[in-house]
């Protein structure tokens, strides 16, 4: 993808770049500026669901976390896993844009007896090449944009049913490096994010005549300092968020298994916008508390004097993912799900479908998004995952 950027004032140009990035990654019809905003985060590529399995289940996975992708969904889930596993996911991102964007996620986990299970991940989002032009519209070079995160996670059992986990990742956001704007040189943004998670999983119990397992978990992810793209004082929060949910797994017999999962996700970003249009984001350690309040979002594009607002409760600010997965003989799976986001808070609403196969140590998963809104950027997004499980 090629984009031309004129030499604007540093703060305005960087804000433009971040807005483009947020639009590309979130692929949502965002509300116009408001008195208070729940958006405003940079490096939102960290929120792209990486695995085809949970992506096929309506983006629900915090209470499952039973493979290496627990590094993303819930690192506490690593504690219940044994052996060695590695997986790679690829997706041509936002195919409706026809912009040659792509997303890669490499993950692995390794169990250490008597200690716990370690995980590692690499996330890469290619945003293409861009052409720079000066104020006279003359070419001033090209630059490549991409986002990268490297991280490690650890999960351990507190007891047989409950586990805790954590993760740490280095974030490197290379949007428009080396551009000189009003004596300010743009640079790659760097930050770190920390995760804290828990998972409870029951022993199998009889529900009627069906062997059932219940699990519930949470993951407080991407707690860390704001990220900065120049030497100016402008900086943006990283996407701290809380994901929590539950799941039921029903083993009907030795061949047939059904799982129902339900996730809730809340961005813990608190950005206040004053009457002059200046925004201020709380640091993450304040936002995890201050973001739990109702907010007003503007529902039109008129001036502040003519603005109309919609009040969003805390529940309205959450996304909800619900999914089903059916396995036959641990060899073949089919999946479906539904993802919902309030129309004034992004308006992502879509159905998901997926399938998976397992043979010996090899697994392959696929997922597909069917957007309910016409011409939605996420329409027809597909993910493919290849998994190698050396415990089989």
Order of helices and strands: EHEHHEEEEEEEEEEEEEEHEEEEEEE
Shape: globular
**Proportion in helices:** under 10%
Strand content: over 45%
Sum up the structure in keywords.
4 helices, three-stranded antiparallel sheet, disordered N terminus, 392 residues
Describe what you observe in this structure.
The chain has a domain at 4-64 and 92-100 and 191-389. The strands form 4 sheets. Strands 3-4-5-6-7-10-12-13-14-19-20-21-22-23 form a 14-stranded antiparallel barrel. Strands 2-15-16 form a 3-stranded antiparallel β-sheet, with no helix packed on it. A two-stranded antiparallel sheet has the order 8-9. It has 4 helices and 23 strands. It starts with a strand and ends with a strand. The chain has helices spanning 10-26, 52-55, 70-73, 284-290, and strands at 4-5, 36-37, 84-93, 101-112, 116-133, 139-157, 162-174, 180-181, 184-185, 189-201, 205-207, 210-223, 241-251, 256-267, 271-273, 279-281, 295-298, 309-312, 318-328, 332-340, 349-359, 362-371, 382-389. It is mainly beta and 392 residues long. The protein is 8% helix and 50% strand.
């Amino acid at each position: 993808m090629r984009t031309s950027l004129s030499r604007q004032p540093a703060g305005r140009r960087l804000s433009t770049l971040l807005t483009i990035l947020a639009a590309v990654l979130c692929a949502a019809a965002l509300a116009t500026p408001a008195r208070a905003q729940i958006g405003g985060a940079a490096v939102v590529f960290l929120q792209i669901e990486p695995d085809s399995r949970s992506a096929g289940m309506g983006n629900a996975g915090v209470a499952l976390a039973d493979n290496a992708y627990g590094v993303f969904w819930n690192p506490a889930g690593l504690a219940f896993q044994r052996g060695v596993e590695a997986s790679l996911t690829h997706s041509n991102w936002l195919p409706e844009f026809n912009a040659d964007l792509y997303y890669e996620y490499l993950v692995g986990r390794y169990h250490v007896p008597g200690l716990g299970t370690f995980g590692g991940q690499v996330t890469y989002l290619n945003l293409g090449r861009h052409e720079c032009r000066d104020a006279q519209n003359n070419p001033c070079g090209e630059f490549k944009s991409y986002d990268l995160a490297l991280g490690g996670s650890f999960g351990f059992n507190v007891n047989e049913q409950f586990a805790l986990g954590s993760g740490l990742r280095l974030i490197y956001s290379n949007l428009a490096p080396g551009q000189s704007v009003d004596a300010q040189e743009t640079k790659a943004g760097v930050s770190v994010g920390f995760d804290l998670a828990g998972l409870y999983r029951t022993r199998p119990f009889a529900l009627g005549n069906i062997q059932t397992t219940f699990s519930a978990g949470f993951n407080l992810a991407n707690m860390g300092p704001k990220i900065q793209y120049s030497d100016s004082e402008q900086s943006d929060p990283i996407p701290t968020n809380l994901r929590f949910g539950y799941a039921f797994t029903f083993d009907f017999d030795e061949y047939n298994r059904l799982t129902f999962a339900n996730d809730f996700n809340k961005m813990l970003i608190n950005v206040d916008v004053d009457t002059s249009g200046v925004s201020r984001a709380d640091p993450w350690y304040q936002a995890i508390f201050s973001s739990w309040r109702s907010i007003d979002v503007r529902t039109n594009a008129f001036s502040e004097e003519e603005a109309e607002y919609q009040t969003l409760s805390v529940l309205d600010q959450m996304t909800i993912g619900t999914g089903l997965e059916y396995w036959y003989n641990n060899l073949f799976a089919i999946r479906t799900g539904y993802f919902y986001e309030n129309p004034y808070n992004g308006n992502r609403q879509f159905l998901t479908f997926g399938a998976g196969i397992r043979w010996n140590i090899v697994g392959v998963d696929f997922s597909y998004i069917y957007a309910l809104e016409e011409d939605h950027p996420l329409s027809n997004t597909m993910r493919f995952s290849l998994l190698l499980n050396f415990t089989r």
